[in-house]
Amino acid sequence: MDFKQFLQIHQYQLAGVPESLWERLYHKLSQDLVDAGEAFELHFGDPDDEYTLHVKKEEGIKEHGDIFLVDHAWTTKPETCRAQLLDNPQLVERLVSMMSISVPEGDAEEEEEEDNTPKDGEVFNKNPDLEVDDDMVELVSKQGNVTKERAKVALQHEGGDILAALMSLTLHPDQDVEALQKLEDTIGLQVKRDKAAKSEEQRKITTVDTIMREMWKYAQTYEYAFVDPSGQTKRESAWYIMDEVGSSLRHSETPNCICSPFIYVGRGTVSYSIIYPIKDLAKGDKLTRDFVPADLKEPIERKAYLQAFHDEHDAAELIAAYETSKQQELNVKHVDSPFNTSIASKNGDYNVRLYTTTEWVASNCNLPNVELVDSEDQADILWFSQDFKDFDKLAKGQKINQFDNESCVTYKHNYAALVKSAYGSVPWAQPTYNMTTELANLVGHYYYNEHHDKRNIWIVKPWNMARGLQITIQQDLAPMIRLRDTGPKIAQEYIQTPMLYEGRKFDLRYIVLLRSAHKDPADPSQGYDFQIMVYKMFWIRLANQTFSLEDFDNYEKHYTVMNYGNYNLTQLLYTKFIENFEKEHTDKKKWTDIQADINEAIKAIFAAAVTKPQPEGLGGVDMKQPYEPFSIYGIDVMLKDEDGDHCQPVVVEVNFSPDCTRACKYDPDFLNNILTVVDPRAGNLDKALQAFNVL
């Protein structure tokens, strides 16, 4: 690769690098010249017990005077890093040194135990209540060639002494001393080995746990693209820790160098980091960089982010910021409901023409009055599975399955902002923070929980992904803060007391139809009437394992979406669920009351959406357009188990254009009912409305 090709391939990465350094960078990359050791040296204990990087050159280094490559010691993902560490002791040893981690010592030799040999006249088992280790029982059972139950009794009688238990089971009183000594040596050696192995395994696990806590002070991230087996281009984030040179850079509010990842496409694809000075550096100067992302400008937001790098936290100002935001939410005036429950029936012999790009719609449409057409221009109803942008091209009277700006509810950060704006804090929505704009309030809430002895468990989600992609559960603050670096995300307080079904966590998927029509077709300036209705049939998504507040990496315990992976999927009809739920939770409300609460929460969301102007809501100038929008949404609801008979619904999220293949299998009239309500010419409106709760 020549220099011209290098510039063309890497132009976007080079945009942030001074042009005077491009050619020097090219030569170092093409030769894999990692020469930072010639310019810098590591110091330890300046002033803390950690490594720092200092200029070694006598003449120093001028601003933009040179650029250096830094290797990456470890590249990983949060979901695989533990397994990688457990399988790679050399990497663990290197990271322990880089991070200045104190490794726990092995267990000291235990003191000699007292003699528990039974005395004359004592019964065989003098300690029947003594707890003995299963591994010890297994060992005595095999060595003594007896059942595990007999081995356990012998161990209990001998006070847990393995050798004494084996002697009581296998040695005759007149056996020679040599046989006794051989048995004692064999068993003693095996016991020592077992103890050493257990001690080493525990030390290994403890060390890995420490690395996983400390790694967020050192880890950096970049995004890369790849082509999946279906041929689609996807993007993922990789986490990496630089080598000893890069990892010794320290934070400063007035940094003297830049350090950033650089993916070199030359000899294959190789990831480095690059360092170059942005100030003149003299010999002995310590190199510093700014750890905080460039988009965080406000001092309080910068302080919040830097909590990921400190062992001692500065919580007071952040808690105060959180408490101020909560007080503001309490003062929010609630919006009024703008809905109309009447739907005008339209009679007459007319084929409703439907154009759709949505597979489940095309394959389940079997109304005699509905005709599938191939042209958008011919259609009365347009139904797209992808985002639609050309609203200005729609003809008067055409109906389309999207509202302009409906991302105000379907993007998770927008949904949370809409609820806060319209209602403040409400019991049917979990505390949620946009990690791009509300990091200080999130960190303050975390510290507030700590100060009030409330356990911190948070679920971190991308703004706009479905199917459980890139969702993690976090208890520690540092990884939660740093996950902000992998793209826009929200952090939502985890529901720690969910209602359970046969001991398992679940959520409920509802299909909600938002429908609008002109109040007066002769005068579109009056805007729209809105109807909101919830399909009575819902479906249940069950975790596969018994719920508990532990083992948060276990997908089948803490997540409920099982139909997009290699998991068992529980099929449960909603009527059977209701019947069993009421039997299991006789101390709670009847389902009719719970359903009424769910309906009210859903109604409140869309009342806010249609009342608030764009971009916060759906209202505004587009309300006067000639077309008639409608949309169906997948609403995910969890039930929170609260004191007494209260079962609090929580609307977790609102999903755009849900795949309703499963709903059509449960109810063959599912799509027909929706189409008829959208356009009553399609079928029997009275019959279709029976499938909905009209709010």
Automatic annotation (TrEMBL):
The keyword Ligase applies. PROSITE patterns: TTL. Gene3D superfamilies: ATP-grasp fold, B domain, DNA helicase RuvA subunit, C-terminal domain. InterPro entries: SET_TTL12, TTL/TTLL_fam, TTLL12. Pfam families: SET_TTL (PF25556), TTL (PF03133). One of its GO terms (cellular component) is cytoplasm. Keywords: Ligase. Residues 103-129 are annotated as: Disordered. Residues 52-110, 201-303 form the Tubulin--tyrosine ligase-like protein 12 SET-like domain. One of its GO terms (molecular function) is ligase activity. Signal peptide: none annotated. Residues 106-115 have a biased composition (Acidic residues). This is Tubulin--tyrosine ligase-like protein 12. The lineage of its organism: Eukaryota, Fungi, Fungi incertae sedis, Mucoromycota, Mortierellomycotina. The gene is TTLL12.
